[in-house]
Design brief:
By secondary structure, the chain is mainly α. It has helices spanning 2-85, 87-140. The protein has two helices and no strands. The two termini are 51 Å apart.
């Protein structure tokens, strides 16, 4: 009789533990699913933004090529005029050259700004991750 009672208690305790562990597993699985959904959502946003950035850079390259060809045509016209008209055209060519240099400087500034922006963004992300690691390290101790 005593062994039957012990067996019933064992099966009762085992059943309770299986139920508790099942509930804990289901809750952990729910949190894992939520985390994976967030990661998927973030990766979609990053993919979309990177595609748009690549498209913007492609458009910028295309417009630069167009402007360069226009500039080449203008230079050719100016050089023809220089041969014909002499010093007056040379002066206007120099002013056009300065304007082109100025515009090229603006484009270079834009490029360096974008490069700096993405570099700073990476550095800030690294600093934040280091702070999180330090905070989590202190909590664990």
């Amino acid at each position: 009789m005593e062994t039957v009672l012990k067996a019933d208690i064992f099966f009762f305790v085992t059943t309770l533990m299986v139920l508790v562990l099942s509930v804990v597993f289901v809750v952990a699985l729910i949190y894992l699913i939520r985390i994976l959904r967030n990661i998927f959502y973030i990766s979609k946003i990053v993919r979309k933004e990177s595609d748009e950035t690549a498209k913007d850079f492609s458009e910028l390259r295309h417009s630069l090529r167009e402007e360069a060809s226009k500039l080449k045509e203008d230079v050719d016209v100016l050089s023809d005029r220089t041969r014909e008209e002499g010093e007056e055209v040379l002066i206007s060519f120099n002013s056009a050259h300065k304007a082109v240099k100025k515009e090229a400087g603006k484009i270079w500034s834009l490029f360096t700004f974008l490069l700096s922006f993405f570099t700073i963004k990476k550095v800030v992300k690294k600093i934040k991750s280091k702070k999180k690691k330090k905070i989590h390290g202190k909590k664990n101790k």
